Amino acid sequence: MIKKENLDKTSAWPFVEAKKLLRERKSFIEKKGKITLQTGYGPSGLPHIGTFGEVARTSMMVNALNQLTDFPTEIITFSDDLDGLRKVPDNIPQKKLLEKNLYKPLTQVPDPFGKFKSFGEHNNEMLKNFLDSFNFKYIFKSSTFLYKSGFFNSTLQTILENYEGIMNIILPTLGKERQKTYSPFLPICPNTGNVLEIPVKKIDQKNSKIIFDNRGTELEISIFDGNCKLQWKVDWAMRWYALDVDFEMYGKDLIESAILSTKIIKLLGKLNPSGFAYELFLDEKGEKISKSKGNGITIDQWLEYASPESLSLYMYQNPKRAKKLYKEIVPKAVDEYLDFIEKAKTQNELQLLMNPVWHVHNSKVPKENLIMSFSMLLNLVETSNADNKELLWKFVKKYKTNILEKDYPIFNKLVGYAIKYFNDVIKLKKKYKKPNNNEKLVLAALVRTLDKCNDQMSPEDIQTLIYSTGKENGYSDNLRDWFKLIYEVVFGDENGPRMGFFISFFGVKETKDLILNKIK
Length: 520
Fold this sequence. Notes:
Number of strands: 12
Oligomer: single chain
CATH superfamily of the domain at 4-174 and 232-281: HUPs
CATH topology of the domain at 4-174 and 232-281: Rossmann fold
Strand content: 5-15%
Distance between the termini: 62 Å
Low-confidence stretches: none
Number of helices: 25
CATH class of the domain at 4-174 and 232-281: Alpha Beta
Helix content: 40-55%
């Protein structure tokens, strides 16, 4: 067990938020005997990496709560699949099929992939399969099922009884034209099956019915059993109320919605959950990642190039700072993950609570020793021309004798990831510099310096000689340009590994041959 004084001192955000939740919801949690955390998902498009981030971060909250309290916890992953399809996503097949089914509930829209009964069910199954692959512990809830089964009926009745109060909360936030047609309840048309946004003519509170004006025709419909769906902000408050949610995090673009949903649940007679607004996920252009656009790196792509744990680490760090999600960030994320594992080996308990890998690995930090960084491994893929794991491992073992794959499970996976990432991402963008005559002379001087080196020399001693060569050949005022020249000629990039370490690992003779080939 972790010492209480360290739990009190740590400022790691999952602990900060967990303590806040336990303060704000103390009496409700004690009454229920459990803690309920919710994550929300709209299956109007394929699940994207932001959805993973929300569940991963909430799971980190659960990890912290398990250290702070004996109350059992549960995560509800809620799918808003009774929502109407408002637009056709860019990244799916059979767009015309979806165009014909606009405004129908997502669980009534045909699956363009032809695998499930509906588009909503397809996306729900994708989400569940993905979360299961990460071994997340969650309870899946479908909006369609909860509405149609009658689970929400008593809460819907409470909302109908507070209809005027809810209108008074929402209407001031709307434009004048929208105010004329707004209703918290959206009827599902018995003829077309569409989710309708039409004005209310009359409320029959006694019989739990609403009479709508459907373009001049009266539409009388029950609010129960999935005949009506609630507008988003009211629907969110209804979920909090009916599911007794204690905590939910959400993107900063939903802060205004959260404020209104908070007012609504308080009107209904319950306290709002503890909340946490995180910054948005952006693509490489700085645009918000969208399910319908499919921009940014996908979940599947990240997992082709790096481990799930590296992705979890990326989600852990700075949740209140906007994050760009694109392929080129993967190596840095992997190296930070490896670095935090190394640091954990010498950290005390309080420091461990601040180490992201403690949260990524649910307090069980791996003990594996570091062979090399992912960035270095990518350089080795290039310089060795290895195109499969076995060949690259042979190369590694040439310079790191007496190591076995089974003793390095993290690194063993990195070997495969590095080959895939190099060929898919790096290789396509390589721009090798063709050195001019003066630059060839300087690089030839570097080869002569390496003639004085051997594989038994320390990386630091080799690095010192490389520095001296640059200083003696016109780079004394700017050694950065010296190393930039080496990197651009040898690696096709402005940045590269620490050369002393690279040479000691790659081999002195092999490095000389590599430079000579580039000069020629």
